[in-house]
Amino acid sequence: MEITNEAxxxxxxxxxxxxxxxxxxxxxxKIEAVKGGRGGSGSGFVFTANGYILTNSHVVHGARSLEAVxxxxxxxxxxxxxxxxxxxxxxxxxxxxxxxxxxxGESKSLKPGQLAIAIGNPYGFAYSVTAGVISAxxxxxxxxxxxxxxxxxxxxxxxxxxxxGGPLVDSRGRAIGVNSAVILPAQGLCxxxxxxxxxxxxxxxIEHGRIRRGYLGLGGQNVAVPRGLARRLGVAAESGVLVIxxxxxxxAAEAGVEEGxxxxxxxxxxxxxxxxxxxxxxxxxxxxxxxxxxxxxxxxVDLAVTPREAGVSxxx
Length: 316
Fold this sequence. Notes:
The chain is α+β, with helices and mostly antiparallel strands. The chain has six helices and 20 strands.
């Protein structure tokens, strides 16, 4: 049988990638940012028809001016609605209506080996499409703020500078992640923030302009607890946070935390390090008196601490 139609030559994989790219690309935008007199660019995607765009925090953080270039060539001035360096996510908005929207999927049901397609603007090459698979789930990656991001998606769909903030989409053209990072000089080690996290963060950023997190006012470092010392003090912890600084007037100081204390628990749950403490200081912890377990010479002590909202000055 003679094949005369070009479309018939495409196999199922190619057809899927082609159809997804055609469906998703109109909602992908190029974001041009001016920081400190220098210009840079990244990607993003429209998730509401009235101009809300998801992207990476590191694309827009600290920018003096922003512009979003749509797939059809239209260019809009953009403003940051909210920015969260801890999750490397941000929401920007352009004053426009009726924009093409990328449907948001779910990341909780993803599986390794599943098709993953990235769309973005690497090195300014607009609307570049790369395809691969989800290589692994549940990876951890540090944001530029130093906080540990969990449940990160690993993919081998090629990403390059400029892809940041663009969508990772599934075979149905739904966003399943926000492309964020690559490990260089490795090849095929690319990472995306899961869309379930992005949906939660975007909602908070639109509502409050920020993500509310708890704050204790202490500085610390991760340390191992020698087994002999742990047995003598009667604790099961193998590691904890050694307090090396306490901010005067902060929640930790008011609770009686001292330099040299070893923090091993919060709200009755063990803490193995600073990352665990960051995870515990959620919005729900703000203003709520909670037990902070510290180890001193005579053993563990529970101190009543009330976390404040990070970045907000206490009322006087």
